[in-house]
């Protein structure tokens, strides 16, 4: 199928594949993004519906890696269909796709995919590398640095750097020093703004604004806006705590950095 163009050349670009939670909405899949630098593309979180949107821009066989923040279904469930696409469809992988994710990710996938006495061969599709706090990976011209965040389960935010550009992603997390540290002086912070009230597992829009201000980022992109807020509400409330530009991660939006 024809590939959509990713826009003008920049050190780093972020394409929003979906940003809904806790389940997909018409026209908006769950959490998933395409992070690109030149011809290097990384699928960042794989929420339900994001694989189809990913294919508007690139194919599984052209991905440099997949990076999963945590194992809640709204961030990783499309790995299941990606497995079938990688091994049993029209995709010819030159090698298993590097898959970075929390400890136990391979067995979690195999537990769902196995339908008989033999374990499903997850590793034929994915070359799994388990994340840990401080994990660093060079993927083409991009450097990914993980940090453990507070979500009541193993979960990781990430800082992505390429050339002069930098992007931090909270994943799902309660406010914590790790998010602010990851985002220090970044061009952009992609941060959840999940609900209207404080939570032990998620940022509110106000929390997202405070994290952006504390980190000194140049812009804030709010995502993962829950069903009890509108995107406009989330942007307005985050902007009350952060003086820089605030945008919503609308499905299909592309952000070029720096």
Automatic annotation (TrEMBL):
PANTHER family for this protein: METALLO-HYDROLASE YHFI-RELATED, ZINC PHOSPHODIESTERASE ELAC PROTEIN 1
Pfam families (alphabetical): Lactamase_B_2
Ranges of residues in domain Metallo-beta-lactamase: 42-224
Single GO term (MF): 3'-tRNA processing endoribonuclease activity
UniProt organism field: Amycolatopsis thermoflava
Name of the protein in its database record: Ribonuclease BN (tRNA processing enzyme)
Matching SUPFAM superfamilies: Metallo-hydrolase/oxidoreductase
């Amino acid at each position: 199928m024809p590939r959509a163009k990713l826009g003008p050349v920049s050190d780093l670009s972020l394409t929003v594949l979906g940003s809904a939670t806790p389940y997909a909405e018409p026209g908006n899949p769950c959490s998933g993004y395409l992070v690109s630098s030149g011809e290097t593309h990384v699928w960042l979180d794989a929420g339900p519906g994001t694989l189809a949107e990913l294919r508007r821009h690139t194919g599984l066989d052209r991905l440099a890696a997949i990076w999963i923040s945590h194992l809640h279904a709204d961030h990783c469930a499309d790995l299941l269909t990606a497995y079938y696409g990688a091994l049993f469809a029209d995709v010819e992988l030159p090698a298993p796709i590097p898959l970075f994710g929390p400890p136990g990710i391979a067995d979690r996938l195999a537990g769902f995919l196995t339908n008989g006495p033999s374990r499903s061969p997850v590793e034929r599709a994915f070359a799994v590398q388990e994340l840990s706090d401080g994990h660093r990976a060079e993927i083409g011209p991009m450097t990914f640095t993980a940090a453990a965040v507070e979500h009541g389960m193993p979960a990781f935010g990430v800082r992505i750097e390429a050339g002069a550009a930098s992007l931090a992603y909270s994943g799902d997390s309660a406010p914590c020093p790790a998010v602010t540290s990851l985002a220090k002086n970044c061009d952009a912070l992609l941060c959840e703004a999940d609900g209207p009230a404080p939570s032990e597992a998620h940022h509110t829009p106000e929390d997202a604004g405070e994290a952006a201000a504390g980190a000194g980022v140049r812009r804030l992109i709010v995502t993962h806006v829950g069903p009890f807020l509108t995107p406009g509400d989330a942007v307005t409330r985050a902007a009350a705590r952060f003086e820089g530009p605030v945008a919503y991660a609308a499905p299909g939006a592309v952000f070029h950095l720096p």
